[in-house]
Write a structure and sequence with these properties.
single chain; alpha/beta; Rossmann fold; 2 domains; five-stranded parallel β-sheet; 14 helices
Length: about 350
């Protein structure tokens, strides 16, 4: 059994509804979404709710193999079909007969191979390499990709006829940064899932403050990246340090070297606040002082510097800035308010 679809967002609720409606039909389905959102998990759930459960579930990554090897993997080959083909081999379509074939990263498949795949989908038949005999296949084809296939069609990279043959049903999984309400249930699920495997002694749910900080991160690796963060917490402990490094690293490494250029503060110094800013002479006996407060001040300062820089470079256009920063428009608005970011005199925020 594959993992369940975890989340409370409207997008995830819709994904679960589509799975329930589509699973019994066997209609060709395309699962769309960025890398790491869980496209294979959705395919496994379709399979588990379908009448094909118990039959083969075969996956092939179309981006991981060169064209010639991918063709032989899909359709199989006869002995002597090419140099090195010393014995007959069944392809994925044969192995998946009666079950499900997941074509992962189909957007990376070559045009020539797309034409052969289209023939199989139209006729239900294929011939292994080096064979004159056609084989029938009863296979439910599910495709997944992080590509914008319509854009690829416009650029001549993906066949339009194959797109409409594959895309009877579309299931779109939104990136994690656009469904932040899913982070708490994902944390609960994966901490409990990984604890027995990793034999971690640190099965402690992050405090609410830390979870809120995780929501401010842009999650370029989506759910897969969150899984890795949680594994580090289980093995190493100290979730505060791990979250701090995640946030500060993303701001200084990912955003500071964006397409807009390298970020420097007005003083030409570093993005991180100096320890001197925390009045270290008065730390002892100060009831408001804590390492946590220092971390928050540091992260807030870094975020403010970066957001200000990007807003200035985009002429204070919040929509453009949110795309560069890889956060939702709503998240950026909240950050602008929280960090008291205002444009200079004579300038206005715009969309």
């Amino acid at each position: 059994m594959g993992p369940p679809i975890i989340g409370v967002s409207e997008n995830i609720r819709r994904v679960r509804e589509l799975i329930e409606h589509v699973a019994h039909t066997g209609l060709n389905t395309v699962i769309l979404g960025e890398s790491g959102v869980g496209k294979e998990v959705v395919a496994q759930n379709l399979y588990q709710l379908s009448p094909r459960l118990g039959k083969p579930f075969i996956k092939i990554n179309c981006a991981a193999l060169p064209e010639g090897l991918l063709e032989s993997e899909l359709f199989g080959y006869e002995r002597g079909a090419f140099t090195g083909a010393e014995q007959k081999r069944k392809g994925k379509f044969q192995l998946a007969h009666g079950g499900v074939l997941l074509l992962d990263e189909i957007g990376d498949m070559s045009l020539a191979l797309q034409a052969k795949l289209l023939h199989v989908l139209q006729s239900g038949e294929f011939a292994p390499l080096g064979s004159e005999k056609d084989f029938k296949t009863d296979t439910w084809v599910i495709a997944a990709t992080n590509h914008d296939l319509k854009q690829d069609i416009g650029e001549g990279k993906f066949r339009e006829d194959l797109y409409y043959r594959l895309n009877i049903i579309t299931i779109f999984i939104a990136p994690l940064r656009e469904r932040l309400e899913d982070i708490p249930p994902l944390i609960d699920y994966y901490l409990n899932e990984y604890a027995p495997q990793l034999k971690g002694e640190h099965l402690v749910r992050p405090a609410r403050e830390l979870i809120e900080q995780l929501k401010s991160y842009h999650w370029p690796g989506n759910v897969r990246e969150l899984q890795n963060v949680l594994k580090r917490m289980l093995v190493l402990g100290d979730p505060e340090k791990i979250v701090y490094e995640l946030l500060s690293g993303s701001l200084t490494n990912s955003r500071a070297t964006s397409a807009q250029g390298t970020i420097h503060t007005e003083s030409g110094g570093h993005l991180f606040p100096s320890v001197m800013e925390f009045d270290k002479e008065n730390l002892i006996g100060n009831s408001s002082f804590s390492l946590k407060s220092i971390k928050k001040k540091a992260v807030d300062k870094v975020e403010r510097e970066v957001i200000l820089y990007i807003l200035e470079k985009t002429d204070w256009n919040r929509s453009k800035a949110s795309k560069i920063l890889k956060v939702s428009y709503k998240t950026l608005l909240n950050k602008i308010t929280e960090l008291a970011i205002t444009p200079p005199s004579g300038r206005n925020l715009n969309d």
